[in-house]
Amino acid sequence: MTLRVLAAMSGGVDSAVAAARVAEAGHDVTGVHLALSKNPQSYRTGARGCCTVEDSHDARRAADVIGIPFYVWDMSEEFDREVVQDFVAEYESGNTPNPCLRCNEKIKFEAVLDRAIALGFDAVATGHHVRKIDGRLVRSVDAAKDQSYVLGVLDAEQIAHAVFPLGDCTKEEVRAEADRRGLSVADKPDSHDICFIADGDTAGFLNRRIGERPGPIQDEEGNVVGTHNGAHTFTVGQRKGLGLGGAAHPRYVLSIEPVQNTVTVGPRASLAVDEITGVRPVWSGSGPLTEPTECHVQLRAHGEVYPATVWQRGAEGGDELVVRLAEPAAGVATGQAVVVYDGDTVLGSATISATARSAAVASGTTTA
C-alpha cells in the first residue's frame, strides 16, 4: 500500500537516508525542515548544530537529490514555548530536563504529526535509530546509536503514525548508503549539545534567562561549605564547577532545593538511590503495569540499563510509576525520563519526580 509520508529532514545524514529509503520503497514522500528559531544566528552554526540555517540548506539539497518536494515549516513559536521555556522552568524548579526528549514529544511527534495528519499524510518518517515491530518501539541494532530512550515518551497513537527506516542498520552503513546515493551529507558530523544554546554555556544561558541568585552550598549535615550564583545552574551528580577547592575527597551535588536556593553536596556514595518515583506515565508497548513487574529501566540517554521491579499506582491527582532498582544507581536527577523495557522493547516511560535510598543503601550494605 502506498502511503503519503512526511519526511522530517533535519539536514543530517540520518534523516536524509531515511527519506530516501521511504521514497525508494514507493511511497509518496514530501520532505520538511523545521525552522525552530526566529533568529537562526542565535542557535548553533556549522556541524555542531541541528537546527541551523546551514542545516536547512543541506536538507533542501538532499531532497533535490532524492527527487521529492521540500518545504520549511516555521515551528519556532511552538519550539520556544514547549522546549526552551520548559527547559528554563524545569531548571528553575530544581530539575534537570532533557530538551531533545521534549522536542521529540512536543514538536516532532505532536505538533508536526498533528499538522501532517490534518494535511492528509498517513505518517511521519524520521532518521531516529530505533525499530518499530508490531507497533512497539524496539532498540536499534546499533546499540551505540540507539534512540529508543528519547522516544520513550511517545504514546501508541503517535508510534502508529511514525516510520523509522534506520533501526535495522548501523551508523556506518547509513553513511556508506548516503555516499552511494550521492548525498552531500554523507560525512557530515553528528549534532551535539543543546541546539538553542549557541555557545554551549548552559549555566550562562540560564543566568541570562533567570538571573543570578546567590545562595549557600552545604554538606549533608547542613554546614555551609561554599556559595553559588544560582541553584538552577547545577544538576544532581555534578562534580566539576562547584568551586570547593581544598576538600580532602571529591564532592558531588546530591540535591537542589529551589525554594531555599540551596545546593547540597557530599561523597559519591551518597548519590546512590534504589527507589524512583515517576509522574505522567505513558504506556506505548503494554497496558499499565498495575502489579509489580520485573523488567529493565534506563534513566538517561545512552545510560546504563538496570534490572528493576516496576508498577503504576494511583495517587492524589493522578498516577505514579514506582521503580525499585535491583542495584542502586548514582546521579539520578528529577526531570529526566525513566524508560521501561522488556528486553529491547519499550513498554512505557515516566518523568522522574523523586528518588530515595532504601535502608540497605543508606547503611552502605549495598553500593552503587
Automatic annotation (TrEMBL):
The active site is at 103 (nucleophile), 195 (cysteine persulfide intermediate). Its EC number is 2.8.1.13. Keywords: ATP-binding, Cytoplasm, Disulfide bond, Nucleotide-binding, RNA-binding, Transferase, tRNA processing, tRNA-binding. One of its GO terms (molecular function) is tRNA binding. GO terms for cellular component: cytoplasm. It is an enzyme of class 2 (transferase). InterPro entries: MnmA-like, MnmA-like_C, MnmA-like_central, MnmA-like_central_sf, Rossmann-like_a/b/a_fold. One of its GO terms (biological process) is tRNA wobble position uridine thiolation. Residues 205-266 form the tRNA-specific 2-thiouridylase MnmA-like central domain. It is found in: Cytoplasm. Residues 274-352 form the tRNA-specific 2-thiouridylase MnmA-like C-terminal domain. ATP binds at residues 8-15, 34, 127. Gene3D superfamilies: Adenine nucleotide alpha hydrolases-like domains, HUPs, Translation factors. It catalyses: S-sulfanyl-L-cysteinyl-[protein] + uridine(34) in tRNA + AH2 + ATP = 2-thiouridine(34) in tRNA + L-cysteinyl-[protein] + A + AMP + diphosphate + H(+). CDD domains: MnmA_TRMU-like. The record marks 128, 336 as: Interaction with tRNA. Residues 145-147 are annotated as: Interaction with tRNA. NCBIfam families: PRK00143.1 (NF001138), trmU (TIGR00420). Catalyzes the 2-thiolation of uridine at the wobble position (U34) of tRNA, leading to the formation of s(2)U34. Belongs to the MnmA/TRMU family. This is tRNA-specific 2-thiouridylase MnmA. It comes from Nocardiopsis aegyptia. The lineage of its organism: Bacteria, Bacillati, Actinomycetota, Actinomycetes, Streptosporangiales.
